[in-house]
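Onboarding guide, step 5: your first structure request.
Type a short instruction followed by the sequence, for example:

Predict the 3D structure of this protein.
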Amino acid sequence: MTLSKSTTDVDGAASLPSEFSLQQNYPNPFNPVTEIRFALPMDARVHLTVYNVLGKQIKTLVDENRSAGSYAVRWDGTDDRGAKMASGVYLYRIEADAGAEKFTSIRRMIMIK
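The system replies with structure tokens like these:
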């Protein structure tokens, strides 16, 4: 799992996102790796998880506190034990808890082999 943080500079100052967001993975469909981007306007506890279409949890990509900013996480098509998953439709869900502010979003992605 590769996790990177990036922010955009505006006149030398880092610009933080103005709202929570979960972007569509890229590429989609993908093989063998895809990237999922999300943004946090404030520090939050983040859970980013991949599920199969039956709702079974496949892979936990992020489960930790994160500072405000923009992030990119790669998924290599494996489950939490490292087993390669079959071609098909998968869902990814983010839950961000910043105390009084909570954000949840789900998107669909397709893995082809």
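Each response can be followed by summary notes, for example: The mean pLDDT is 90.
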